[in-house]
Design the sequence.
């Protein structure tokens, strides 16, 4: 309630920042349902390489996506230190495997800089902007772009 | 609660009434002549009419009214419910259902059809009347009968009911403005349903001049009073020119919940008019004296008392009328009381039936989900106890065992909540049979058996569509025309038999027709024409029969409205498979075909064999497994480059490496190190599935993969095992299909094609 009120008054938004490899990313906090530790996933046959498998989230079957592999970086080797961000994407719930959750940020829209004009289409599709926080660069990720509907169907 | 919700409840009740109506009519069709059946049918139509009137659904009301009138003729034995009459009535029930649906969902109905039926119904109601009068004993002669036999019984009831009509017909000629003595005794149900005696009386006062006497003698002392019981009755004398029907219509919505006696006063019975008001009084008292004695919530007792009261009313009435010596009034009075007695008896029967409640399906589903969680949690708990328990025989283990039994019991009970008899679906089928039979000009009789067999609601809901397809096919393709049937030495009327039964934890539904059977030559030729099989393919009879399940297959020479577009049986097969079921056909030329569907009782749990494949845990549905065996090296034969066969009792069966097909490992496993599961697949034929090891057998709760992920070819669903991890449930048919060289993405290729 207080967050919402603050958002309304300052026009700011809250983001969850996390580390994947040596880079930092963030997503809208409203999409995040919970954050939990890593548990071994059951692999799925014929799944894309970035889908690690499914886990049991209090009775629901939750697919786990290796965000590192999904974003084109080297596949993660999950350890107990890894974290799963349970996020709502459209009407489905997915688990994102990340190295660690680093911060909760409150930023105003004007602090988000546009994505730099880079050659790779791939980064442009999921990056919605970059943030400069305390000398770090954090990339704002659009989850719906990370899991486009067509691809999920085909997977 | 707004109007729409009330309306929704009305439509829900309509559905029940329609089902009641149809089953009653079918019973009558089978020769049941129980007056209670006729009454049930009448009540169903009457309730629909009443509700529809309240919502201003004029089409429905007017049709129901005509229907009701005709049914009333049957009820009063003026119309013999023979086959022809019932045919019209069954059609009318269909139209009534259509009208109800149209009223709920909008849309229109076949006006011509309903008008035609209204005509037929009216003809039945009117046309049979004179004939009935001639056939039955003369009304005047019948009139004294109740005096001779005052207590209400079957024999007494019937002639009385008949002569009442005669009386009614005479009535307008007798007196212009008639004085009626009305005794109105509401039961507590009347108030419970929100009716108000005041309003009823006020409506009554609009009919004419009226004086009311309220009988408060039944009122118990304050400390013994049940605030929800009904103690008052009213004695009303009403002078009106509207006739008795108008009085009855005032009480139309309340008539099941009150005792209502309407009698003529004055007129020819001048002598008796003084006596008349006196006579009902002791009767009232006897009822009301008793009423406070028993607790009002014991409905059954009340019903018995009501009946007794009604019987005594009948006696009283006949005494009165004996005095009055008015032959015209006798039947009127007696019939009212007889009706009251009958309705009281019916009420008693209804209250004896098991009480039910209406529950939102969502709530049940939530409960089922929770119980599923409980089962999983219980399994996890026992596993961790076993892992941490070093002593072995602690009391925890005993407790856990009991917990396990309890959870299993809870699960079974919860599943039973969702279980419903297949009756509604079967009833719908009888309508489809009638319609198709009409369209094709065939004479068909649908015989249903085991309609009380219970199965999960989801299964029932999803059963209707494939079953409709199959019934259509059976009547349209399966059965021959009456001429052909006669020529083949069969009776002109074809029989379609629909059977449901439980067999080894599944429900088996059989649809048998006694038609010509499958024309295998034609099917084969058609399959060759459509490039489904090679021209020189050597197929067994069973394989040919199963060809009809292929997409785009229809042997009908001409495409009809009903079937023949070739979208039938493959859709049927797919929807049955989607339910985790199997469908088989067996056909004998000249004797008909039998389709056998075997479906799981529930879609929520499944008995499975837990196996290990490439270090992964998988669950194989137990129903698919025929046998398990440990292959020996000598039984494995290589076949071609990659295929291997296993010999089982001198027959060869292809060996399917599950791990390889699911892409869990890159190379084929050594069969000798694993276990083979012999499975039966849809298209007939067996396969041996290779797994690494069998862990055990257990009941698992089915979890959807599609909810958060997507359909995975080769995997039917997921489940959660005792260690809290997700295990995948194998889709055996998809695996077998994949082993035949088809891609493991059958769903999508079909979607792309269609």
Sequence:
């Amino acid at each position: 309630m207080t967050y919402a009120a603050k958002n309304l008054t300052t026009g700011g938004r809250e983001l969850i920042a996390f580390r994947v490899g040596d880079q930092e990313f963030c997503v809208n906090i409203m999409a995040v349902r919970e954050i939990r530790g890593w548990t071994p996933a059951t692999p799925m046959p014929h799944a894309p390489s970035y889908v690690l498998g499914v886990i049991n989230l209090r009775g629901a079957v939750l697919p786990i996506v290796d965000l590192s592999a999904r974003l084109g970086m080297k596949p993660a080797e999950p350890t107990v230190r890894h974290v799963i961000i349970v996020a709502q994407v459209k009407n489905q719930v997915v688990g994102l495997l990340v190295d660690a959750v680093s911060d909760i940020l409150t930023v105003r829209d004007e602090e988000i800089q546009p994505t730099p004009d880079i050659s790779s289409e791939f980064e442009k599709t999921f990056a919605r902007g970059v943030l400069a926080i305390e000398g770090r660069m954090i990339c704002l990720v659009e989850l719906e772009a990370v899991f486009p509907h067509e691809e999920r169907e085909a997977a | 609660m707004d109007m729409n919700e009330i309306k929704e409840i009305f439509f829900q009740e309509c559905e029940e009434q329609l089902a009641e109506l149809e089953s009653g009519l079918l019973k009558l069709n089978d020769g049941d002549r129980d007056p209670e059946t006729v009454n049930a049918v009448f009540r169903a139509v009457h309730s629909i009419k009443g509700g529809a009137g309240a919502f201003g659904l004029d089409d429905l009301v007017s049709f129901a009214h005509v229907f009701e009138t005709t049914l009333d003729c049957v009820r009063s034995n003026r119309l013999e419910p023979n086959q022809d009459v019932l045919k019209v009535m069954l059609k009318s029930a269909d139209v009534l259902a259509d009208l109800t649906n149209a009223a709920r969902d909008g849309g229109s109905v076949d006006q011509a059809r309903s008008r035609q039926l209204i005509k037929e119904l009216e003809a039945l109601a009117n046309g049979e009347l004179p004939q009935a009068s001639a056939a039955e004993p003369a009304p005047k002669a019948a009139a004294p009968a109740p005096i001779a036999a005052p207590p209400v019984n079957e024999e007494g009831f019937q002639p009385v009911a008949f002569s009442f009509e005669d009386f009614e017909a005479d009535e307008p000629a007798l007196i212009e403005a008639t004085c009626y003595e009305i005794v109105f005794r509401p039961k507590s149900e009347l108030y419970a349903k929100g009716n108000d005696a005041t309003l009823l009386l006020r409506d009554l006062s609009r009919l004419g001049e009226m004086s009311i006497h309220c009988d408060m003698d039944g009122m118990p002392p304050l400390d013994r009073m049940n605030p929800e019981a009904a103690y008052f009755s009213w004695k009303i004398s009403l002078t009106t020119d509207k006739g008795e029907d108008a009085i009855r219509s005032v009480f139309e919505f309340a008539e099941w919940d009150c005792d209502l006696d309407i009698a003529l006063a004055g007129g020819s019975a001048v002598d008796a008019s003084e006596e008349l008001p006196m006579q009902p009084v002791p009767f009232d008292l006897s009822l009301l004296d008793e009423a406070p004695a028993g607790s009002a919530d014991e409905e059954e007792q009340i019903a018995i008392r009501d009946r007794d009261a009604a019987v005594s009313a009948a006696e009283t009435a006949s005494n009165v009328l004996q005095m009055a010596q008015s032959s015209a009034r006798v039947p009127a009075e007696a019939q009212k009381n007889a009706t009251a007695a009958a309705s009281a008896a019916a009420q008693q029967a209804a209250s004896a039936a098991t009480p039910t409640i209406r529950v939102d399906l969502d709530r049940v589903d939530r409960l089922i989900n929770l119980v599923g969680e409980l089962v999983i949690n219980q399994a996890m708990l026992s596993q961790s106890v076993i892992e941490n328990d070093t002593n072995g025989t602690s009391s925890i283990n005993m407790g856990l065992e009991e917990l396990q039994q309890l959870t299993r019991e809870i699960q079974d009970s919860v599943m039973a909540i969702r279980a419903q008899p297949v009756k509604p679906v079967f009833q719908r089928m009888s309508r489809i049979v009638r319609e198709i039979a009409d369209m094709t000009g065939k004479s068909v009789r649908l015989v249903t058996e085991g309609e009380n067999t219970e199965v999960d609601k989801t299964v029932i809901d999803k059963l209707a569509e494939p079953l409709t397809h199959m019934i259509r096919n059976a009547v349209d393709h399966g059965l021959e025309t009456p001429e052909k049937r006669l020529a083949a030495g069969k009776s002109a009327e074809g029989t379609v038999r629909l059977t449901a039964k439980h067999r080894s934890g599944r429900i088996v539904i059989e649809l048998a027709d006694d038609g010509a059977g499958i024309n295998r030559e034609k099917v084969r030729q058609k399959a060759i024409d459509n490039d489904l099989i090679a021209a020189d393919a050597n197929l067994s009879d069973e394989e040919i029969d199963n060809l009809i399940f292929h997409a785009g297959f229809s042997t009908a020479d001409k495409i009809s409205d009903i079937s023949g577009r070739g979208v039938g049986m493959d859709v049927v097969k797919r929807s049955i498979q989607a339910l985790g079921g199997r469908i088989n056909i067996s056909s004998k030329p000249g004797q008909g075909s039998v389709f056998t569907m075997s479906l799981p009782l529930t879609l929520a749990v499944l008995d499975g064999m837990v196996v290990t494949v490439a270090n992964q845990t998988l669950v194989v549905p137990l129903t698919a497994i025929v046998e398990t065996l440990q292959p020996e090296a000598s039984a494995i034969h290589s076949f071609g480059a990659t295929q291997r066969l296993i010999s089982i009792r001198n027959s060869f069966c292809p060996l399917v490496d599950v791990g390889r097909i699911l892409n869990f490992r890159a190379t084929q496993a050594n069969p000798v190190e694993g276990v083979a599961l012999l499975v039966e697949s849809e298209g007939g034929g067996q396969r041996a599935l290779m797994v690494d090891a069998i862990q055990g057998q257990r009941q698992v709760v089915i979890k959807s993969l599609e909810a958060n992920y997507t359909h995975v070819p080769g995997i039917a669903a997921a489940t959660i095992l005792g260690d809290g991890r997700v295990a995948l449930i194998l889709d055996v048919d998809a695996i077998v299909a994949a082993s035949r060289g088809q891609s493991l993405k059958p769903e999508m290729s079909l979607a792309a094609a269609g």
